[in-house]
């Protein structure tokens, strides 16, 4: 019996949750609720799609996204864990950690009384993951689909010594045109400008976009909004357990180099990432659990 058939036997919820196996054994959970639909790959516990009923998708997925074992997916909500960006000590290790390209298992699927669907995934550790991350730990990703998309990344230190944890929900949002979009809620926050030689700067007013933008905002307050006049909506982003927010758009040249954005794909997306990055990395004590959550919803404007 293939993986999807086994998952359908054990965890499917009629009319709300079913599993599909793509070529190469890539398994996807499809969620349907009255308020929204979503698709989550078991690899990386990666939310690939989320679309509120009657609206454009909230989450952007590249038309050239590769859905193959071990390949990072361009778009959706990639889980960057247990480090953000380049590995602090070994340049050979994958950028943004290994969590998004390894198998996760689905521990539980539940239809909640309010007709939201909650899926709880746990990263499957292996010799390969332990070779890059020797710390005794578990990490779970809990995805709840309803009128909002809620994602919670929970890391537990199951060992007897502390470790440093960097992470992000590297979320790609669908927008009408990056050149007309703005982001509020980061005013007066300092940021590391990775396009400007990692200089430290301070945000004045709303964030707008006129070229490649790659910033780690620091001491952020857990709420920001994407204003999208083209699609006529605001996307509200609320987070807990995070004091750093990454804003990224590759613009045309970098997107072309990356090769999986598709023609002009960069104009229709912006990443606003709930993170623990830079000086916001977490020192996790033995036995402790750190929870980082993000909630996404849109309001017509
Ligand atoms: O979060 C922004 C960033 O760190 C950019 O610097 C860029 O590298 C982006 O992530 C995409 O990274 P990826 O490994 O998914 O291609």
UniProtKB/TrEMBL annotation:
One of its GO terms (biological process) is carbohydrate metabolic process. Its EC number is 5.1.3.15. Keywords: Isomerase. One of its GO terms (molecular function) is glucose-6-phosphate 1-epimerase activity. It is an enzyme of class 5 (isomerase). It catalyses: alpha-D-glucose 6-phosphate = beta-D-glucose 6-phosphate. The keyword Cytoplasm does not apply. CDD domains: D-hex-6-P-epi_like (cd09020). One of its GO terms (cellular component) is cytoplasm. The active site is at residues 170, 273. InterPro entries: Aldose_1/G6P_1-epimerase, G6P_1-epimerase, Gal_mutarotase_sf_dom, GH-type_carb-bd. Pfam families: Aldose_epim (PF01263). Belongs to the glucose-6-phosphate 1-epimerase family. This is Putative glucose-6-phosphate 1-epimerase. It comes from Sulfuritalea hydrogenivorans sk43H.
